[in-house]
Each structure stands twice: as C-alpha cells, then as structure tokens.
C-alpha cells in the first residue's frame, strides 16, 4: 500500500529517511512529502497549499492509501481524509491530534518576519525530547525550517462528515494510550470523539520517533495499514 508520510512543524520529507526503507521491507511504498513552505524554498505558502500537496499525493496513488501525520501535521492527514474520504483507507496520527474546526492550524509560537521559527529545545524538555541525544538535537535544530505564517495561523475547516468513517490509528509516543483515551472521552479531542474507528497503540519514545525508533514506528505503520 502507498503510505503518504507528512512530518510535523519545521521538518521536510527527509524526516522519514530512516522509516522509509523499513516500510519498503514490510511491503509498502512510502511517499514522504516535502510541504510547500517547509523545504521547497517558498516562504509565502498557505495551509491550503499544503493541503493541496497532500491531496495531490493521495490522488496520484493507483489505489487507496494510508495517510500518516506527525504532530501538527496530524491535522493535515485528517484534512486529506476530509477531502478524499473514498481514497484514504486509513489515517495514522503520531504524537498529535486533528485540530477542531475554527482553530488555528499551529500558531503555537511568535511569528517573526512572517514565519514561526523553531523555538529551541527548552520548550520541549521532558518526555517530548528525552530520547534525543545532543547530536540529534543539534541536527534537528540546524535543519529546522521556519513555518510560514500563512500556514501556522490559518483557520482549520472541514467539509465532509465521511471523514469520521475513515479508520484512525493513534500512535502514542510521549503519552500513553490510556491518557489519549481519557482526552477523547472527556471531549478534549472532538474530531476523534466523532470518529467511528479509533485504535490506540503505544510506542516507547519521545515526540520524534521517526528519528529515535524508526524500525518500531515502521512496524506500527505497517500494522495500521493492514488492519
């Protein structure tokens, strides 16, 4: 199965370099995306541009696909399911959740010169980054791509309730499946509360398992694509 891979903020398609070969070995075809404004040299990209890039990758696949979103890009994966509910066979969310309609996509940090830069590792101390050594942190920080303001501050909207029929697997890295279930049951994650098929799986890692647990992550993605 084709698997469209969307990394989170400040990352481009190379974030999946260690995951992709493992997916291929498990019989899947990874399609890692470099989003407009996050690696293609454009600083004026919008959220609509990024959604269009994801949908184009879905449309280009010969058959139905699994769309994988990491962190903030979980919303992009869910927007793809909203745009193509008949073509997206399943969605996998890694360390994140779909935004609620009306929320900003990812306006988490200050905008400077029209973009949201990586805020530094102090922001992510604790479970998020506990498994990243100093070299990995330095490489990620050096390669971090500021997110265009037109992406980060855009309002999220959905249009097709058939997205709730698309099976969802939540990969829980820096938090537990029990915590995620409690958030869903409490109504804190409205989009997932309405989804009809949500599986929760544990992964003992921090927020960026594509760098620290690529083989284990690939196996979870493969399992999600075949169940």
Automatic annotation (TrEMBL):
Keyword Hydrolase set for record: yes
AB hydrolase-1 domain boundaries: 4-219
Native organism: Nocardioides guangzhouensis
Top-level lineage group: Bacteria
Pfam family, one: Abhydrolase_6
Molecular-function annotations in GO: hydrolase activity
UniProt KW keywords: Hydrolase
Protein name from the UniProt record: Alpha/beta hydrolase
InterPro entries from the UniProt entry: AB_hydrolase_1 (IPR000073), AB_hydrolase_fold (IPR029058), Sec-Metab_Biosynth_Hydrolase (IPR052897)
